[in-house]
Amino acid sequence: MKLYQNIPYSRDINLDGNLEETASRNSRTHPIDLYVADFSQYLIPIIQHHWHEKLQFMVVMEGQIQFEIAGETFVLAKGEGVFINSNVIHMSAPVNGAQAQLFSILFDTGVLGGVDQVGLKYILPIVDCPNLKYVLLKPSIPWQQTMLTYLTHMLEVGESQAYGFELEQKNDLGCLWLIFIRNMRSTLSTMPKKNSVDEDRIKAMLEFIHKHYGEDISLQDIADAAQLSKSECCRCFQRTLKSSPFAYLIQVRISIASRLILNTAASIGEIAEQVGFNGLSYFHKTFKSIMHMTPMEFRKNGKHQ
After folding, report:
1. Is the pLDDT of residue 24 over 50?
2. How far apart are CA 260 and CA 252, in angstroms?
3. How many CB atoms lie within 10 A of CB 235?
4. Which residues contact 162 (CB under 8 A, 6 or more apart)?
5. What's the sign of the alpha-carbon dihedral 205, 206, 207, 210?
């Protein structure tokens, strides 16, 4: 596993109340964010469901990583990558918990062009196409391999910190975007310009879960957040996240509990109640099934590390 000195490592991402990522920029003067996600450094080896306005490219540097983007699931191996459009819900995790490393680039549309002719002609057609959620990048396809080469070079340039590296990264980004937009032109022309109703609904329900996970919430409560029936709520979760509402709720509760276990002196019983578990034995059983150790073992191991 390669170690980087000048590229920030992302660990647990920061989200606001509606699951939008709120991570600050690596540099206030550089409009491109680069980071490496080494899943062995994560409290829980998963980048949970989230979204952001920034456009994003990711490249798998080591191992195999399972992605879930807009409800579709796939696995990428070392050397493969993906483009994720603005405001699209996504998550990722290493396959079978094995070691894996991911390189990510996030940037605002203004890096390439704003409200000028460049932005209107070559950037907004991508951002304003709601049905274009993501594009896989495979080394076996020549134009995608060229994009992957530019992305990898941006990482190398960032690590070197040579004088003018920011300009070199912007130049690389412009070159790979030119390749991207030329090869996506015909695809964009055939895509319907229609908003995804499911995506708006799921964001409302996930926002409700993240605000009320500590309460005794029901399936009807979650469904009401998006003005749906209970059955349609379950179908919407299955279509977009390949999960049930309660499975997602449990994931959120255990994720937050794990942070409280390591970062506070509260008792396990207090934490269980704080994140919404009514019974301590059920909390222990659920925590162990997800984290593969008891809450006390997790606290002991975390302090040791």
Report:
1. no
2. 13
3. 13
4. 168
5. positive
Residue range 99-154, pLDDT digits in tens:
899 999 999 888 887 656 777 788 888 888 877 899 999 999 999 999 999 999 99
Confirm if 252 and 217 have CB atoms less than 8 A apart: no
Q: Could you give phi then psi for residue 148, rounded to 5 degrees?
A: -60, -35
Lowest mean pLDDT among 85-89, 180-184, 218-222: 85-89
Q: Please tell me the distance from the alpha carbon of residue 29 to that of residue 43, in angstroms, as a whole number.
A: 30
Domain 244-305 of CATH type 1.10.10.60: yes
CA dihedral (250, 266, 12, 241) in degrees, to 10, reads: 10
| Rounded Cα–Cα distance for residues 33 and 52 (Å) | 13
242: closest CA among 86, 71, 89? 71
Least confident of 18-32, 33-47, 88-102, 131-145: 18-32
Q: Which residue has the higher pLDDT, 198 or 84?
A: 84
Give the contacts of 154 (CB within 8 A, at least 6 positions apart). Answer: 32, 34, 105, 169, 172, 173
DSSP letter for each residue of 183-209: HHHHHHHHS-----HHHHHHHHHHHHH
Question: Is residue 159 a contact partner of residue 4, using CB atoms and an 8 Å limit?
Answer: yes
Domain layout of the chain by residue ranges: 9-190, 244-305
Within 13 Å, how many C-alpha atoms sit on residue 53's CB side? 5
Which residue is it, tokens 């680069």? 34
| CATH of the structural domain 9-190, one choice from 2.30.110.10, 2.60.120.280, 3.60.20.10, 3.30.450.150 | 2.60.120.280
Structure confidence at residue 174 (pLDDT): 94
**pLDDT > 70? residue 207:** yes
Residue written as tokens 């206030």? 28
